[in-house]
Amino acid sequence: MTVGRRRAACALALTAWLLALGGCAGGRESGPVTLVFKYARILGNADPLPGLLREFEASHPGVRVKGEAMPWASDDQHQFYVINLEGRSPGFDVMMLDCIWVPEFARAGWLLDLTSRLQPDELAPYFPSAVASATYGGRVWALPWNFNVGLLYYRADLLARYGLRPPETYEELIEQVRRIRAGERDPALDGYVWQGKQYEGLVVNVLEAFWANGARLLGDDGTVFPEPARAADALRFLRGLIAAGVSPAWTTAADEELSRRAFGDGHAIFLRNWPYAMDLFQGQGSAVRGRVAFAPLPGRARGEPGVGSTGGAHLGVSSRSRHPDLALALVRHLTSERAQRAIALGAALSPTRQALYRDPDVVRDRPGMPRLQALALAGRPRPATPYYLLLSATVQPEFSAALVGVKPPERAIVDAGARLAYFLRAVR
Amino acid sequence: MTGREAAARRRALVCVAPTVLALGALTVYPGIWVLWLSLQQRIPIFDVSRFAGFENYGFLAVDPRFWSAARTTAVFTVGSVALEVILGVAAALAIHAQQRGRRVALSLLLLAWAMPAVVGAKLFEWLYHPAAGLVNVALGRHSINWLGDPGAALPAVIIADVWRTMPFVAILCYARLLAIPADVYEAAQVDGAGRLATLTRITLPLLGRILLLAVLFRTLDALRAFDIMFVLTGGGPAGTTETLTVYAYRALFQTLQLGFGSAVSVVVFALVMAVAWAYLRLLRAGTVAA
Question: What is the number of domains present in chain B?
Answer without folding.
Answer: 1
